[in-house]
Write a structure and sequence with these properties.
317 residues; alpha/beta; eight-stranded mixed β-sheet; 53% helix; elongated
């Protein structure tokens, strides 16, 4: 019998963890057969770790991982995937915005031979500003990074053991795990769901983290920024040559004096701004190269709690 691992990254989710487990127990756990739940505490500063241990006391299929500090969701998911023991693994957010029964549909699709199953948003019950920027990100990704990214985006996915092994070998930092899964290129299926609005807790998905995701997605999987620099450089060089020729032609034809201090300053300021922009893009690539060359691990496990035996779990409950 195949085994499914449910990997849950946890970051300040003390308000939703117990509700999440109760929801999964009521809807899907009895239907999965052999399963395990891997919860990864990504440096939470609340009581998430205590609640995770309480859940482990209730269920003998729960494995806990505690990272030494906050490394980000990408690293937390990698940590969970590195310790899970299932034939396949599904990622599950702890904010209760996806229906737990979605896991059953993804698991059924995997049983049909699909190595990757994406949970694609059909609709989002959230404010329009958040929806607009989320859709803008996925438009950019589909246009410049990976055309296989679903138009509605995906928060969770199920991957086969082979895909997990590929992700572990990649060992990339400052990247997007979802794009790594798509890049691997295994047989992929999609299931659709309606994303609910968050009812409990406060989102920690800040503007700076969203901006970093955009930068990581573009820098790690696309050459567009570098090519853009080359195109802009060529265009400005052509423009400079044309402007130089036109100024000389006017000087010899009309006798117009070459004064033009205001226009000259505008050109200098514009050029300087572009140079600094290009240096900033190069700096992003160089920083990522340095970070990869240092070979620091993407996460550090501080504590790990293996699943309790079935008998021990019943004794505790």
């Amino acid at each position: 019998m195949s085994k499914l691992s449910i990997v849950v990254p946890v970051y300040y989710n003390e308000d939703t963890l117990m509700d999440l487990y109760e929801d999964m127990r009521a809807k899907i756990l009895d239907k999965l057969g052999d399963y395990e739940i891997v919860m990864v505490d990504d440096g939470s500063g609340d009581h998430s770790w205590e609640i995770m241990n309480r859940i482990r006391d209730l269920d003998g299929h729960v494995r806990l991982v505690k990272l030494s500090r906050n490394f980000g969701e990408h690293a937390a998911l990698l940590a969970g995937l590195s310790v899970c023991t299932g034939d396949c693994a599904v990622t599950k957010q702890a904010d209760l915005q996806e229906d737990s029964e979605l896991i059953l549909d993804m698991y059924d699709s995997w049983k049909k031979g699909n190595k990757v199953v994406l949970a694609v948003r059909r609709s989002r019950d959230e404010n329009r500003v958040k929806i607009f920027f989320a859709n803008l990100y996925y438009i950019l990704v589909r246009k410049f990074v990976n055309k296989n990214m679903p138009a509605g985006g995906c928060d969770c996915y199920l991957i086969d053991r082979k895909v997990i092994e590929v992700l572990e070998r990649l060992d990339e930092k400052n990247s997007s795990l979802t794009l790594q899964v798509l890049w691997a290129g295994f047989q992929t299926d999609m299931v659709y769901f309606d994303r609910k609005d968050r009812e409990k807790g406060e989102s920690r998905w800040t503007l700076s983290k969203k901006f970093k995701l955009v930068m990581d997605s573009m820098m790690s999987f696309s050459y567009v920024p570098i090519r853009l620099m080359s195109v802009v450089g060529v265009v400005f060089n052509i423009g400079a040559v044309v402007l130089f020729i036109s100024v000389l032609a006017e000087y010899f034809r009309e006798g117009t004096p070459i004064a033009g201090w205001p226009s000259l300053m505008c050109v200098i300021l514009c050029s300087s701004g572009l140079i600094l922009l290009m240096l900033g893009i190069l700096g992003e690539y160089l920083w990522r190269t340095l970070d990869a060359a240092r070979t620091r691990p993407p996460f550090i496990i501080d504590e790990e709690a293996a699943p309790r035996s079935e008998g021990e779990a019943r004794e505790k409950s």
